[in-house]
Amino acid sequence: MVCQASFAKRYRYKRTVKIKRNYISIMTNTKNKYPHSEFLFNCRKINESYPVSLDETLSKKDTDEALKEITNWHGYQPTRLISMQALAKDIGVKDIYYKDESTRLGLRSFKALGGAYGVLKYLHAKIQDQMESKIDIKDVRRGKYLNLTKNYVVVTATDGNHGRSVAYGAKLFGCKCQIYIHSEVSDGRKNAMENLGAKIIRVNGNYDASLRVCIEQAQENNWQIISDTSYGGYTEYPRYIMAGYTVLAQEIIDELKGKSAPTHIFLQAGVGGFAAAMCMLFWNAFNDQNIQFIIVEPNLAPCLIQSAKAGEITIFNIEEETMMTGLSCGEPSLLAWDILKMRADLFMTINDNKVPELMRLMSRGVGKDLGVEAGECSVSGLAALIEARNNKKIAQRLNLNSESRVLLFGTEGATDPDIYEKIINA
Description:
seven-stranded mixed sheet, four-stranded parallel sheet, alpha/beta
């Protein structure tokens, strides 16, 4: 088997991306410090059922509990799974399933399923401890203990969407919330969290800098961190958050009953929590299908592909922010890495320059395909699909061809409407 490092070097390249009938024509930016897409096949992947050893990372019990609870929330309803056959034909695959999270619980992002659920699990545990007795989590959800929950403070660091979910959970379940954001988070995303009642602290530097300040102040004030990234000594709430994310994967599985399963799943990744959660549930549901899992990162924040090269978690120093702000992370989540290092087929990176035109393409739709509201992170999977399909050696190794059924995730809509409109109308 070709080792990871040599394969990555061999297939690192610069190219123009094109689709038939000129629906897309995007040039790679040669001035960017990291202009190339990079491909890294995972030689450590295992070809077996989800290991029992990974139940400590994320188990079926975790995901079943999250599904039972979240599907009972006010306003919950499954989001759309859209078939984009015209776009698929132009790219050269059989079908594209697109999971549209732009309407999720009014927050316009899949993150609504994770952070808010983490807040609820925290409050449930604290109230039980305080009362020294078992209580039903649904009573916390229904506001029975508001006189107690109002005394607790939850905090997190965020690029926007996760913080908005934590703020939503704090408002929904009755506690205080403080959010740490870095210097590049837009005012629109900041305002959206403030509108949910959160206190916002802006920190100089990138996401990792805001996370460090968040951790320090939480320890000083005995506040609870509800983070979507895990590290040594902190895994409980990231596990709950990942379990919350799997609700959308279960929706897809339910909708695909009686239909053909996807052959390729492209998963965008920041710290990797979302990608790992999707990977876990589909791994369990379609273990005999040999689905190809492709992990997609910005080439300005490639912490997972760097970790895959090293064979261990590796920190990447972010020197320039990607416009896909939700994916701008320099250190993988410990829990996510446990799953991805064992099941990902391919790690790859994409360039920012493809993002605006793909957002406009998704907005207007191709042929008879339905147009959708796709934010910056939402088109990362599509950009990666185009890159992989147009590279003959990569496509051949992935068995990505005219018979492939590809699953993509529209992880966010217009989470900052002003930025979204400027891009769409450019």
